[in-house]
Design a protein that fits this description.
This is 5-methylcytosine-specific restriction enzyme subunit McrC. The chain has 418 residues and is α+β, with helices and mostly antiparallel strands. The protein has 4 domains: 136 residues, no CATH class; 93 residues, no CATH class; 40 residues, no CATH class; 112 residues, no CATH class. The protein has 13 helices and 19 strands. The strands form 5 sheets. Strands 11, 14, 15, 16, 17, 18 and 19 form a 7-stranded mixed β-sheet that branches. Strands 1-6-5-10 form a 4-stranded mixed β-sheet. A 3-stranded antiparallel β-sheet has the order 2-4-3. A hairpin with a 4-residue loop joins strand 5 and strand 6. The longest helix is centred in the middle third of the chain and has 19 residues. It starts with a strand and ends with a strand.
């Protein structure tokens, strides 16, 4: 195998000669298991990532990192890095290709931090140094930083019910078991009692997470920290049925500081929580749908920019049909009770004909249902050399004229282009 870690940008070809025969066959199996939706063939001997970013780690130890496509040409990213001294100082010792990949990774981390109900959003780790760190190691480092905070506040104990055959009476005597198991050994007592121990389900989940991560981490620094944490959780049992374990978590105020660590544990132990994948052809995968990420990031942008306005994300107050209520309408961003509606689309748009009829029908449905609606916008990612006036038209919805426009979000510079 030529490279243990291989980085690609979305839609970039993954060639067998670059990753090695064994790793390529493992990625091929993963693509076939998932019907070429996450990884697909561009031609024989060449795969490409499409609309999904994140990590795929194969059973042989090879790791594929997929980063978001934020520019049509690398020159656009390089120019932006060079023009901003705060950014260029971080990347000055890297070659052009590495600079593009590192900046794309930085944008991905920022996008992940806007995801609702995710550990990224609530992470208290500020100014994380991501330069030259693999994605997986960044995620592990973020988890460990949260775990450090938890340990400083104290590991919670709970009353754990134990059943044992003892030489002394303790707790409650189990009559049935006493008769069947101690018929001969009259000197023993089959008892059930509660003991105040740290071996509660939340700590067992964390211990299981640490045991999994120490097997997949390749960073000596993270390995050392994981060993230290395992020492802290020594004596705590691991869990076998992971899915049922998360259902037993106690959500009370005394456990609130456990919340983010358990979100990280869920991410690592149930790594299908963001993008489900099929088969067991890879050892570990953590993948994110770029449609979901782009929607989350742009929504967060509008919430911060329009603090004085009423901004709702994923509004669910209307249905396409009212009697009976069917097909919920969920525009991504609703401003001022529907006066302005915006919907994000992670699609590469070059000209007007690339905008699908389905997207326009969707805008018409929004304009018809929201009585105050005056403007609807389709938001696509911006790429250099694209005309930003691709679509500007009016539609008549429910006896009113509504302006429909396509606008673009520039991920490199974090701003709208309209």
């Amino acid at each position: 195998m030529k490279n243990k870690i291989h980085q690609v940008i979305e839609y970039e070809p993954i060639k067998e000669e670059l990753v090695g025969e064994k790793a390529f066959k493992e990625l091929e199996a993963f693509a076939q298991d998932n019907e070429n939706l996450i990884l697909g063939y561009s031609r024989k001997g060449v795969l490409k990532a499409q609309n999904y970013v994140g990590i795929i780690q194969t059973k042989s130890g090879f790791t594929l990192e997929i980063l978001p496509k934020i520019a049509k040409e690398n020159e656009a990213i390089l120019q932006h890095i060079q023009n901003d001294p705060n950014i260029s100082s971080k990347y000055q010792n890297l070659n052009d290709n590495k600079q593009v990949k590192e900046y794309s990774k930085e944008i991905l981390i920022k996008m992940l931090k806007t995801l609702k109900n995710s550990p990224f959003k609530y992470s208290q780790k500020a100014n994380l140094k991501t330069k030259n760190l693999p994605l997986l190691e960044i995620f592990i480092e973020m988890f460990l930083s949260e775990l450090d905070l938890l340990v400083k506040k104290g590991i919670k104990n709970d009353y754990i019910t134990k059943t044992e055959n003892q030489h002394f009476l303790k707790g409650k005597l189990k009559i049935k078991e006493q008769i069947t198991k101690n018929f001969i050994h009259k000197e023993r007592f089959y008892v059930e009692y509660d003991e105040y121990l740290p071996n509660r389900i939340e700590n067992r989940i964390i211990k299981t997470t640490l045991s999994k991560l120490i097997k997949i981490s390749k960073s000596s620094k993270n390995q050392q920290r994981l060993r230290e944490c395992l020492f802290v959780f020594d004596g705590i049992d691991e869990i076998k049925n992971i899915k049922s374990a998360f259902a037993k978590i106690k959500n009370d105020r005394t456990m609130s500081y456990y919340q983010n660590v358990l979100l990280w544990s869920k991410l690592f132990l149930l790594n299908q929580s963001f993008t489900p994948y099929k088969g067991n052809s890879v050892a570990f995968a953590l993948l994110f749908d770029m449609n979901m990420l782009f929607e989350s990031y742009v929504g967060d942008f509008f919430k911060k920019k329009l603090r004085k306005k009423k901004v709702k994300l994923q509004d669910k107050q209307y249905h396409l049909f009212d009697e009976p209520k069917k097909y919920s309408l969920k525009p991504d961003i609703v401003i001022d009770d529907g006066a302005i509606i915006l919907d994000t689309k992670w699609k590469i748009i070059k000209e007007g004909k690339d905008i699908s009829q389905n997207d326009l029908y969707q805008m018409f449905a929004y304009a018809s249902k929201y009585k105050e609606c005056k403007r609807v916008y389709l938001i696509y990612p911006y790429f250099e050399k694209i005309r930003v006036d691709i679509l500007r038209t009016n539609i008549c919805a429910e006896h009113k004229d509504v302006v429909v426009r396509a606008i673009f979000f520039d991920l490199i510079r974090n701003r709208l282009r309209a």
